[in-house]
TrEMBL record:
Mg(2+) 2 binds at D191, E227, E231. PROSITE patterns: KARI_C, KARI_N. Substrate binds at S252. Pathway: Amino-acid biosynthesis; L-isoleucine biosynthesis; L-isoleucine from 2-oxobutanoate: step 2/4; Amino-acid biosynthesis; L-valine biosynthesis; L-valine from pyruvate: step 2/4. It comes from Pseudoflavonifractor intestinihominis. The keyword RNA-binding does not apply. This is Ketol-acid reductoisomerase (NADP(+)).
Length: 339
């Protein structure tokens, strides 16, 4: 059994007197900074000069400095910039200030697992990895709940790294939901696997296939969107609340029968698992990490063309229109216009 921690196991007082520098103000950055501030911590945000997020963070009542100033100021330096730029920014603006006794923190282990960042021996290195999107880390915190987190310690120079990591996770609200102890190694591999095979890669392709099949067969795109995309969340919410049993309890018996009959037809079980195993092999042996690092060095041609094509996909265009006209007008927190 994995070791689990909850609020009763976390002492927020381990953050007393500690200055916390959050580097980056994107999905995770804004959530960590605001949740920690609301938990009574001394927080600043470190951003590049000219950052579009600078005014946003200040308007939210946060101290903002350059990345180097924040790294110098902070006792805990949490790196919440994109994985692919972390090594470069770390080397230039953070490493010079990682003096003995400080803590370097991550929300995902990519750069430690694949040795892109090698911290000095005298600092604590811990992970507070929410198992959910940053915007949800913020919205659940505001609603008195939290997103489950993984905790890991790569270096325990002060002897207090676990206590500090758990306090940090309590500060962002994660301990309200549960904290599982793991390693940087395992978090990195399982997180990459989950997002590629199931949560993002798997789900998006499944929805896209469903949408296209209905539209190509002559049904209205709006119907295909409601059926294969909008309803996905409503169904997954039931699984999230009470497991597959709760979904099966709420859906019709007709749907449950179809689940058993047609699920294995669209997703041939053993073949899919074999393919997933290959994806996992690439993650474990560093092939995927190497590809992602090379893609960034080479100007992100593949990534950018995929992103542009997706934006033009009918399911995205139809969905945007339908969401705009829902009475609540979509989710204002998720401004994707800048992407
Ligand atoms: N997205 C998520 O929900 C999750 C992310 N994580 C991890 O959290 C970390 C942050 O990811 P995420 O929140 O998605 O990141 P985002 O892409 O949402 O935000 C990135 C932030 O980094 C800043 N930034 C980008 N490049 C630079 C640079 N060269 N110098 C200085 N600042 C820079 C951006 O600045 P600007 O505002 O100026 O553009 C922005 O504020 C990653 O390690 C990721 O794996 C872990 C769990 C879930
Ligand atoms: C599922 C994607 C994720 O791992 C996350 C939100 O947990 C990420 O890297 O953003
Ligand atoms: Mg991830
Ligand atoms: Mg994740």
């Amino acid at each position: 059994m994995a070791k689990m921690y909850y609020e009763k196991d976390c002492e927020l007082s381990y953050l007393d007197g500690k200055k916390i520098a959050i580097i980056g103000y994107g999905s995770q950055g804004h959530a960590h900074a605001l949740n920690l501030k609301d938990s009574g911590c001394d927080v600043c945000v470190g951003l590049r000069e000219g950052s579009k997020s600078w005014a946003k963070a200040e308007q939210a009542g946060l101290k903002v400095m350059t990345v180097a100033e924040a790294a110098k100021w902070g006792d805990i330096v949490m790196i919440l910039i994109n994985d692919e730029v972390q090594a470069e920014v770390y080397k230039k603006d953070i490493a010079p200030y990682m003096t003995e006794g400080k803590a370097l923190a991550f929300a995902h282990g990519f750069n430690i697992r694949y040795q892109q960042i090698v911290p000095p021996a005298g600092v604590d290195v811990f992970m507070a990895a929410p198992k959910g999107p940053g915007h949800t880390v913020r919205s659940t915190y505001v609603n008195g709940k939290g997103v489950p987190c993984l905790v890991a310690v790569e270096q325990n120079a002060t002897g207090n790294a676990y206590k500090i990591a758990l306090a940090y996770i309590a500060g962002i609200g994660g301990a309200r939901a549960g904290v599982m102890e793991t390693t940087f190694h395992d978090e990195t591999e399982t997180d990459l696997f989950g997002e590629q095979c199931v949560l993002c890669g798997g789900v998006v392709d499944l929805m896209k296939c469903g949408f296209e099949t209905l539209v190509e067969a002559g049904y209205e795109p709006e119907n295909a969107y409601f059926e294969c995309i909008h309803e996905m969340k409503l169904i997954v919410d039931l699984i999230n609340k009470g497991g597959v049993a709760a979904m099966n309890y709420s859906i019709s018996d007709t749907a449950e029968f179809g689940e058993y009959v047609s699920g294995p037809r669209v997703l041939p079980y053993e073949e899919t698992k074999k393919n997933m195993r290959k994806v996992l092999d690439d993650i474990q042996d560093g092939t995927f990490a190497g590809k992602w690092i090379a893609e960034n060095k080479n100007g992100r041609c593949f990534f950018n063309s995929k992103r542009a094509n997706l934006k033009k996909h009918q399911m995205e265009i139809v969905g945007e229109e339908l969401r705009k006209n829902m009475i609540w007008g979509g989710d204002k927190d998720l401004d994707t216009a800048s992407n």
